[in-house]
């Protein structure tokens, strides 16, 4: 994929969302009908990849969240303070328009989400995602995400590991 032809920016009212079409009707409906309300309510931030014609090629959402300390693998728990929960950034949704599918844009969007999370001025231990199925979980595991102990479709990647790559 020619990454130079795309730019990732925060979604605003000026971006045309009605033609976005991923392979998930649920993600399409959310993006077209709900995301702006969630942004106004400050419960999510949404970022979009735009091509040279300003067509939305993909999007993802981020929100602050927390996970119960005991849901993390034992080796990770030992390295963290004994607070009941750990602050994280949650990658709520990630979708690629069908016309850009198979070109690596999902990985580019994920990398951008990781960079934004790792460089945020508010502390967070990890980026967490709830994969919709085993295929999605495999996508995240390919990038180093670790399944939670009791919920293997919930995965996390410590942001310290991302900071080390930047």
From TrEMBL:
Name of the featured protein: Ribosomal protein S18 acetylase RimI-like enzyme
GO annotation, cellular component aspect: ribosome
GO molecular function: acyltransferase activity, transferring groups other than amino-acyl groups
Keyword Transferase: yes
Catalytic activity: glycyl-tRNA(Gly) + acetyl-CoA = N-acetylglycyl-tRNA(Gly) + CoA + H(+)
SUPFAM superfamilies, A to Z: Acyl-CoA N-acyltransferases (Nat)
Sorted UniProt keywords: Acyltransferase, Repressor, Ribonucleoprotein, Ribosomal protein, Toxin-antitoxin system, Transferase
Organism superkingdom: Bacteria
PROSITE patterns to which the protein is assigned, alphabetical: GNAT
Domain N-acetyltransferase intervals: 6-160
Organism (species): Undibacterium pigrum
Family matches, as Gene3D superfamilies: 3.40.630.30
Keyword Ribonucleoprotein found: yes
Pfam family, one: Acetyltransf_10
């Amino acid at each position: 994929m020619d990454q130079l032809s795309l730019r990732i920016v925060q979604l605003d009212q000026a971006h045309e969302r009605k033609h976005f079409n991923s392979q998930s009707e649920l993600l399409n409906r959310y993006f077209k009908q709900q995301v702006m309300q969630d942004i106004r309510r400050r419960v999510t931030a949404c970022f979009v990849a735009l091509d040279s014609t300003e067509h939305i090629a993909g999007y993802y959402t981020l929100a602050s969240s927390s996970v119960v300390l005991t849901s993390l693998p034992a080796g990770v728990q030992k390295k963290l303070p004994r607070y009941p929960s750990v602050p994280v950034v949650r990658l709520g949704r990630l979708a690629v328009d069908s016309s850009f599918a198979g070109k690596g844009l999902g990985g580019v969007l994920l990398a951008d989400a990781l960079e934004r999370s790792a460089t945020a001025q508010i502390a967070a231990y990890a980026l967490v995602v709830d994969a919709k199925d085993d295929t999605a979980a495999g996508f995240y595991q390919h990038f180093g995400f670790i399944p939670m102990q009791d919920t293997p479709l919930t995965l996390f990647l410590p942001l310290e590991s991302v900071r080390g790559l930047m």
